[in-house]
């Protein structure tokens, strides 16, 4: 295919598929962001249960993280979508409603990848908490900080300093998992690409374009994540710089 024809095909003019691909990429990002936020909430609760919970709570949390990390992501999506639909349909029939009732595909997809990501975030946040010096928390409480202030100003920055690389991996994993959500009926990037490829009989061109869009999103995500890592590692870098200067510029 000529370059001009290819650009026209993926462009935004008449006969171009650029608008639909861009809308699919936007939906991919939206569901990944919502799923990641849900994963962080679940992960924080799971990490707290593993650290502070009793034996039964820790056992249940271990079962959750082990099961969700071992079950294929697509199977989790099917279970959430069809399981919630069956439950809502039964509840609707109980209240004399007719027909099939299901969650919107976006909501079901967000819950599915959020539950999967929550199992990963649980272990990442638990590992990050384990390296937080207890003396820092004790000093904060000794200064009279409330638990909320201590978490916001001491615990969260120290935890994120070590957990940020792992959380970045979780984000990229959820971004890729969003390509499976066409099973819930939403037209994300991969589904929009499939429709375009089937309609034009040019699968290689459109799937290559989709790959380029995913790579672009991954590159932008990597830049933002590295910026966040530098933000939460400011004290470490400063200490290392001062130590280097004290040794006459020789790195230890």
Automatic annotation (TrEMBL):
NCBIfam families: HEQRo_perm_3TM. It comes from Acerihabitans arboris. Gene3D superfamilies: MetI-like. GO terms for biological process: amino acid transport. The chain crosses the membrane at residues 21-49, 70-88, 100-121, 154-172, 206-225. It is a multi-pass membrane protein. It holds the Pfam family BPD_transp_1. It comes from the Bacteria. Belongs to the binding-protein-dependent transport system permease family. HisMQ subfamily. This is ABC transporter permease subunit.
